[in-house]
Design brief:
single chain, alpha/beta, 7-stranded mixed sheet, 12 helices, 7 strands, 43% helix
Length: 279
Amino acid sequence: MRDESSATARFVAEHVVLLGPRIHALLEVTPEQIEWTARVLEASGWSRGALSSLRSSLVERFSIPGIRTHYVLRKKIIEREMRQSIDEGCRQVVAVGAGFDVLPFRLAAEFPHVTFIELDHAATQNAKRVVAERYGSDIEFVASDLRNEAINVALDRVDFDREEKTVFVVEGVLMYFGEEQVIAILQSIRHAAKAGRLIFTAMESDRFAGSTWFAEWWLKRRGEPFRWALAPDAVAAFLDRVGFDVLRVYGAEEIRSELPAAATGRRVATGEFIVIAQW
């Protein structure tokens, strides 16, 4: 296992926070989301410098223009779908490769009858374990390397009920694996619970539209290049091979439609889409 947290996990969290209060209000990002994200970042050793927001804007401009807004909208859709899954009877939530995402922290207190579990590298989870203990969050953490361990096997180490309807969230993860590994991950989810919902994101190609050489260089330097992509119109056939039925696909237009009326002029990076499926 790696001995440091995922660079992209920290990148996403940091740059959403550094959008700043004005853009948070414009995009209707809740104060609770920013507060919890800042707690996890700070527990990882991060601190906000005097020029952090400016640096964040410059990084976005010269890497993937519109990526921070895309992250915000992606998370907004996933939260809505997770809430709907809970409303429709899912009593377990498993966040696979959760990174520094804080949705389980925010929902655990709101839904005490639901079990929240996170699977990720131990190093990436360290900061979240600190925050969970500090604020009394009831989240189960499972240290696991998806390249070497099946999800259904990893879940044997916690109080997971295979008979209970479960929602699995795999946000911003699968593009870092080869296709055979993606298939194995999805099959292990399918075998982990008798029935449930799957929420995941996928890339349309090996890069975001409009991304620069700097973005590709940074990902390779961090050892996290994109390895897998899938055309949105090929999702149904691909998932059918591993036993899932597609419910919805949020492509570029659907994601952009999540922009509040006051923010319709903002640029939104395209190239990643969201899939909702069930079994």
